[in-house]
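seq as requested:
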Amino acid sequence: QHEYMMTEGHWWSDRVEAPSELLQRVRLGGIALKRNQSYPGNTVSWRFDQPDAAEQVALLVDAPSRDRFTVTAYNLGEKPLDAHMTGWNIDPGTWRIRSGIDRDGDGKIDGKPAQHDVPLETSTSTTLRFPPRQTQVFAFERIKAGTPVATRADLGIGRGDLHRDGQTLKLTVHSLGHVATLAGHAVVTDAEGHEVVRVALPALPAPLDLLPKTVQVELNLPQGFKPEGASVQVSQQGDAEEVTRLNNRLPLD
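struct tokens:
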């Protein structure tokens, strides 16, 4: 039905769009990206450990809401596959996962389900394993509320914030959250995860006036330090909660 519109009769001269809304709703529990959509609506996203594993696992995110949803999966492969499921449009807190095999195709777990609790919120991941040639059901339910993301501080470092001059690192740290940050630290760790150098970060105000709130610090690396596999990470005192931790680390190489 869409062939002509998406090929020789396409609507825009700069691109061709293939309809993917249904696929996104099924696999992600909402539409993550669509032309002219200003805000992502997906419940979760997926990142698989094994190459091409995403093409081997059928996924259905059923009845998604901010405090509960169900994932039904079927692994077409011959060996178990692992995926990191990241929460997005969900409420923060402690979530209970009940999982098991659906042998009769009714969408429910047969027998007594396995059960464990995990912290889950926007940008936080948990790992799921899909056994081969079986329908696996994971029922997610929030059992304890966490701090709303909109009330948190957020330290951030990203592309262009790290510069190396010989054995000196110059790092620009941003306050990006809704409230002021606590004092904290920037730490360089080597490829084995051992701490190499640490420097204190002051408390930073929130950018309530929509202007950048930053501080620049210097970290002096020891002679002979190898940057391959090393990284720098920022955090608040007591590893306080943030809007997201995905912007807290940068590789040195």
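The mean pLDDT is 93.
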